[in-house]
């Protein structure tokens, strides 16, 4: 509790105090509070005899252990949660009566959980996958959950297809292979037979599917919601989270190696940065469409497989979220957090987006099995910070002790309380949208263009992103065994871009695609990562040092990196003090085996050697080659030039040679801020 300072704490944090327990320096007891004199031996009849039935301590301890696991989430099983705060930049009263957006500077506690979708709870942080981006706002008017993803669109248009999609992308049911990836027959079979997936699949093949950090990815509501103001006027709205550090991603080769070296990379990175006070931040933006303009676009604004181009519908930035506190207990907080897009507050309402409508059913339903009954709202992490009163009672694990004999409405015994609140008193009133129609199982024709926007995405990308997509398709479809499915996918994506499909067909030895792409020339530059924000903060440098390294050449590099917020590890063949020339010393905290080049945003080569000179060279070369291949910074001091020359790397963009460009440290910081040097050609 030491890190929590009175005064800076949110209402949620203070509420959680009632549930926190610190077991340090306490006597061990049973769950009934009985102090136990022994905890290492079962109660037995004689020291070699059978265990006795009356050993309540053994039974309690073992029974609790036997029941420790709950089902993991059916999707988004692997996630990472953090506490923080949201601050509104201005009053949004003209658009919504939501109190947490009503005043400039108003702060609201939040809990965010970022997740992968497909992999199981124990899988990796860095598969090619969509990331979930769920935020619970503990507002004065009740919990508001913004449950989004890191891409602005989804695979399907109607939620009734969600079980099919998830069955297809999860490991195949007969052998539960492969884990955390869509690179297998059933997923691509689903894609080819459900062509509404085209747009989302293009995004999934792009670098967006491999975020370098959770703090370097966007978040989107995807679904269309409504803002409603106090006058009852409504607008359609979609939400965006824009990371302050910009959008940055791994290469696929890099991601696979990160998985091997540190499958917890993304969560470890955020945990560590939060502990160090480098808090991840995102600005919240909204795109709004007037009701009268509902049909003024060449896509349907209720279709979750379409993004709203930012150039046509600008994003208004309305606040900032800062995540500034790690959880005390992963299970109690992150695992038990229950999000739901239907947790809304007055001023936020739904649209008829058929994907959203299905979600409004699914989330409560899934919590009932996962969290074991209808009282999951009482779990500390899920409790609103405002009071809640109704006539619901009982159920597994009920904690609230409702006093009195009335648990029904209407009543006279308790004077008709708890009573509904009027709209003026903050009561939620659903937007009175007029609806009429025949009951049909059908989809509007306005949902049927599956390729124009997928092509718009392709048209808007930089060369490095297009190359990434071709390589991703080649990997993923290259893993598909069924030739028919492979060909169907190639033919399908020729609708997006014929040359792209041709290139993939060549790589996987499929037939050239039939047909040509749709004629759609519009672009939306905002969907490309090319012009993103580039900052040095939270970047990681590895400095290779061997015995006799060039300490002089490093000069003030360490200070410059630190000033810029870049952390550095010294890497050598062993941990401990490494002696350089001219009396310099470095404390190597990592070795070629405890770490790997892919875990850094760039390397600095300070030269030197090891006990086995050949092995040192081979290790250093491998580190340099990977860093260079993944377009990252390679800095070389005078004494590091020999090691650099022995690698496959070459001078060029992002390779900073000491002495060549004035201030070495400054040039390195700029290069780390830039991160990837895609101008580098192979
Ligand atoms: Fe979810 N989704 N989803 N989803 N989703 C779940 O709820 C579902 C969809 C998203 O960190 C489940 O508590 C359906 C879109 C996130 O705990 C489940 C459909 C988007 C999380 C569920 C979708 C999301 C979930 C599983 C199609 C982005 C993790 C566990 C109609 C806008 C929340 C759970 C967390 C989790 C259903 C589609 C985001 C089964 C039926 C689109 C971030 O209820």
UniProtKB/TrEMBL annotation:
Domain Catalase core: 29-417
GO molecular function: catalase activity
Cofactor(s) annotated in UniProt: heme
Entry EC no(s): 1.11.1.6
Catalysed reaction equations from the record: 2 H2O2 = O2 + 2 H2O
Task performed by this protein: Decomposes hydrogen peroxide into water and oxygen; serves to protect cells from the toxic effects of hydrogen peroxide.
Protein name: Catalase
